[in-house]
């Protein structure tokens, strides 16, 4: 037998290291604790981070809470270094605050390290910040989180400021929902294209994903109306086609093309003035 080259074990070790790194994924739902030094409202909080990772860029939502009725919801952006397993998150906006009147939201910067040991994934590190009026520095503290399968709070779908403003002023009439299809996908990146199902007859639709308006009063044609979003693992996403009108030929019908990685699905939808068609999607890695 020919003696094995000493380069082969080294190469295998290198490839093994690359494969291990490829399994690391700090995106998802993280839950744990946040401590705060003397002077804060409470010395200990619960913390949930909802992290979406695209390349090295991070977006997401943070909930720090004493209990589920007293919380602050923030949006954040950040970066992840896959080589050092370090991430920095910067909160940029207070979205909701339900806390005692003598407390004030703290807008935080997180400096966290990602670690994986078998199936256990952790984020640990420090935070600092300033109160939302930006006059005083918050007492800093420590963070300890583990990846979780389920969220304790609603998981948002990203929505533009324009559509958020539209939805805030919108009063859609409640309608019965018919779930036409439930799909399981293997990619977190979801793309939905909507076409008129038959003759173009001036149907217009509003499309909601988990109750967030992502398309508003758009006409169905032979060119796609496109919605994209990133899904968290094991959480249901409900895509609803709400008929703004019935067009020239009732009911309002559409062909929905769903792309998730190399998976493609076709679903035919029909909505009326009393019933909306829906598709449920669950991402399972």
Describe the structure.
- Helix content is 9%, strand content 56%.
- By secondary structure, it is mainly beta.
- It folds into two domains: 18-148, Lipocalin, CATH 2.40.128.120; 161-283, Immunoglobulin-like, CATH 2.60.40.
- Strands 1-2-3-4-5-6-7-8 form an eight-stranded antiparallel β-barrel. Strands 9-17-14-11-12 form a five-stranded mixed β-sheet. The protein has a four-stranded antiparallel β-sheet with strand order 13-10-15-16, with no helix packed on it.
- It is elongated, with a radius of gyration of 23 Å.
- The model is unreliable at 1-22 (pLDDT under 50).
Walk me through the topology.
Blueprint lengths: L6 H17 L4 E8 L8 E11 L2 E11 L2 E12 L4 E13 L7 E12 L2 E12 L9 E8 L12 H8 L7 E10 L3 E8 L7 E6 L2 E8 L5 E6 L5 E8 L8 E9 L2 E9 L3 E9 L2
Parallel strand pairs: 9-17
Antiparallel strand pairs: 1-2, 1-8, 2-3, 3-4, 4-5, 5-6, 6-7, 7-8, 10-13, 10-15, 11-12, 11-14, 14-17, 15-16
């Amino acid at each position: 037998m020919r003696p094995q080259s000493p380069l082969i074990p080294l190469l295998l070790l290198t490839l093994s290291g690359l494969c291990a790194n490829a399994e690391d994924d700090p995106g998802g739902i993280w839950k744990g604790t946040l401590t705060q030094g003397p002077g804060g409202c409470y010395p200990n909080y619960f913390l949930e981070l909802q992290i979406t990772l695209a390349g090295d860029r991070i977006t997401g939502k943070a909930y720090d809470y004493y209990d589920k009725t007293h919380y602050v919801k923030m949006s954040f952006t950040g970066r992840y270094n896959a080589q050092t397993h370090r991430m920095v998150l910067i909160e940029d906006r207070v979205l909701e605050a339900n806390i005692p009147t003598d407390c004030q939201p703290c807008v935080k910067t997180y400096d966290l390290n990602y670690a994986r040991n078998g199936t256990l994934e952790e984020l640990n590190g420090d935070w600092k910040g300033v109160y939302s009026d930006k006059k005083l520095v918050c007492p800093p503290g420590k963070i300890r989180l583990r990846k979780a399968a389920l969220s304790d709070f609603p998981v948002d779908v990203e929505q533009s400021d324009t559509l958020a403003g539209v939805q805030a002023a919108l009063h859609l009439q409640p309608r019965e929902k018919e779930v036409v299809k439930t799909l399981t996908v293997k990619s977190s990146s979801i793309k939905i294209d909507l076409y008129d199902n038959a003759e173009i007859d001036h149907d217009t639709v509003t499309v909601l994903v988990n109750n967030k308006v992502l398309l508003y009063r758009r006409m169905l044609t032979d060119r796609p109306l496109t919605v994209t979003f990133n899904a968290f693992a094991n959480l249901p996403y409900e895509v609803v086609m709400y008929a703004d009108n019935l067009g020239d030929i009732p009911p309002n019908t559409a062909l929905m093309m769903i792309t998730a990685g190399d998976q493609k699905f076709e679903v035919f939808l029909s909505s009326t003035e009393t019933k909306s068609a829906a598709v449920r999607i669950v991402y399972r890695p």
